[in-house]
Every structure is written in structure tokens, then in C-alpha cells.
Amino acid sequence: MPDLSQIVKAYDVRGVVPDQWDEELAELFGAAFATVTGADAIVVGHDMRPSSPGLTRAFAKGAASRGADVTEIGLCSTDELYFASGQLDLPGAMFTASHNPAQYNGIKMCRAGAAPVGQDTGLAEIRELAEQWSVSGLPATDATPGRITQQDVLGDYAGYLRDLVDLTGIRRLKVVVDAGNGMGGHTVPTVFDGLPIDLTPMYFELDGTFPNHEANPLDPKNLVDLQHKVREVGADIGLAFDGDADRCFVIDERGEPVSPSAITALVAARELAKHPGETIIHNLITSWSVPEVVKEQGGQAVRTRVGHSFIKQEMARTGAIFGGEHSAHYYFRDFWKADTGMLAALHVLAALGEQDGTLSQLVAEYDRYAASGEINSTVADQAERTAAVRTAFEGREGVTFDELDGMTVTGRDWWFNLRPSNTEPLLRLNVEARDTATVERLRDEVLAIVRA
Questions:
Q1: For burial by CB atoms within 10 Å, which of 129, 192, 327, 431 has the most?
Q2: Per residue in 10-29, pLDDT tens?
Q3: In whole angstroms, what is the distance from residue 193 CA to residue 189 CA?
Q4: Model confidence at 423: pLDDT above 80
């Protein structure tokens, strides 16, 4: 029996096409998805990668063979698929490999209402069935094959977002958007249509070979073109979306990146203004400024592990109105607790346009500390290197440790987190302090131990 563990990850399917998976396997995933969810109808969508339409249609065929009606929404962003799952109350599947290189593709799956499907919530069973059926073939069924129909939800998606954040009264803004040849080039024109925005588009042509740069704004080199264009045209703000447009990164009027932690704090403050006293979720490597702002605004801050499954679990448990991560994933209760970079972008545009100052002035109150960003180190033994760092800091006055996710070491005016990658022999370091000199001192001390 084949082993699909290389492509079935913790939260999605991801691999090289056709080397690791193909349309034949996609059909089995579709049949397994319909079986495990027990759905009599599902919705599917896909990004702009060359392999996406064929994989999506094969998945739809497999689901229909088990008796499920399939609504194809065609080209879409991941958060547009979540919108369709929520609005239509159907399980959904999005074909994308997000920011990965062109030869990759994948599937992000959810239950009705955009509830995530991961290893503990159905993905392991889907993998098991696909493995069995790849040997035995699809079993016979008495079910009447489902119908496959098409529906365009882009306009409804755009209208839903604009209803959540009213931008009609803001001052006119000059906005540069870098879609990275990804799905932002499909969604931004419709979402921004009719708003008081002068849009300068960059790389809006849908092209899954990514001819200009990787659609991964987390890597600073992929922001360089946007930073240059913001300065060149004198824009008020720049926005960068990843390949499937579920993450959004922000550039200020100087061409400088705005920390996703600052965006989290800004959006949290806006959401708490509408919903006083409610809960905000943040992962443990967002800035100290996030819980500080939440407390100042009268909200309750809840700290979680890194990763969307933990954020979504805590949002469901606490009824939180909003959640943010350092990786520029932003989650909204008003959006079925799913992540949507576009909604976060609209909040930032509204906040900027409702006052006369610049973006750098606006976010200054939310960006209070110096930070290292995430630094990766390849190590032979993650646990042994982490223990060596702990030994070096144990016994220092006022220093505390916690192990919610990796190891977080906290001093009086600084903290750092060292956590292992689940998929690679890496340790990831994040440092924050009140000043840059302290960040650099801690960074160098910890890296010297990790890389010894």
C-alpha cells in the first residue's frame, strides 16, 4: 500500500505534481473527502497554478461518484473558498500550494462553516481511504452520482467583506498592491471596486509559474519591488498578498514593512471598539504590544501556540472576536473564525483613511518594541541545543521559562522563544526587547549556543 505521509501534512495536502500526486490521486481524495465528511454537497475552488483546474475537476469527480453534489467556484483565493463554505454551509476544498514554488500543489479542506480539517479532524481518515483505494480502486456504491455545477461567488465575497468594514467615508488613499501573480490579482479589483482608492496594481496577471518573484511576502526579498513602487508613486500604503491571497503584508508610506504584530494590535483595537470586553487571540511570538493594547482597550488577551489549528481551537473555545499571528494570518469571528488577509487589509485602510496622519504615525502606538524577526538554525539535535540554551539562562535573576510551544525565556524587559520545526531539523528563534541593542545581544548569545 502506498504511503501518502509525504504529502498529507498536519493541516493539508501538499506535494509536487505529478511526481508525488496527480489527478488520479485527486479523484481518490475527493471520494474520501465526501465519505469522511458524510456530505451530500460540497464546494471546491482553485488558484492559478497550471495543475489546479485538472486536479480540482478530478476531485469533484471523485466526490460526485460518492453521491455528493459539487459546486465549483473556479478561480478564487483561499479566504473566498472559506466564504463559500460559510455562506453556503458546505464542506469545502481549496486547491493551492499557497506560496510554494510552481511545481507544487495542494488541498486545504474544511467542513461546513469553514471549520478546519486537520489530522485530528478527518485528514488522517481521508489519507487512509486514499491509500486503500489507490490499491483496490474505488468501491462500488449505491449512491446516485452527484451533479457538478458552477457558481461565481466573487461578488458576494467582496460585498460581504465591504459590509464588515465601511470604507465609503474615508479620505482618498493611494494604494499599491503586489499580488505576486497570485490570487490577489483576481480578488482585489472586485473588492476595491467603487472604494475611494487610487490603485496601483503590481503583478496582477494570474501566473502560477511566478515570473516576477515568489508569492511569499514573509521573505523580505519578495517585498523589494513593492517597497520601491510605494516610494516611487508616493503611495499612502502598500499591500502584498501571498499566492492564495489568505495572508496580507503591509508597507508604510516610507516603504518600510509594518510588523504583523502591529497590524494585529491595530485590528484588535478596532474590533474591541465594536465589541467591548471581548477576547482576542494571539500566538506566543507576537509582540508584547498585542496583549498590552488588548488590555488597554478593555479586552481579554489569550496566548496560544503557533499555528492556525491552535488559533481556531481557542477562538471556538473562547468565542474570541479576532486572532492574529506573526506570519500575517488574521482570523475573524465574523468570518466563520477563518483567516482572511483581505479583511485585515480593509481594516488597515479604514483606520488609515479615517484620520489625517501617515501610516507610520498611525502604527507607532502599536509597534512598541524592537524585534529580531524569525531566525532559523539547522541543528543535529533540537532538544539537546534547546537544553543547552536553558542551562545558560537558568539561575539568572528574574528569568522565567515556559514551554507552551518550544521554550520561551522571559526577562524583565525582554523575551525570546526557541522552538523546533515539525518538518525540518531547524530551531526557530524570535527575540523581542525594549531596544535594538538588547535584541542584538540576546540574539547573538542564543545563536552562539544553538550553532555551537
A1: 431
A2: 889 999 999 999 999 999 99
A3: 6
A4: no
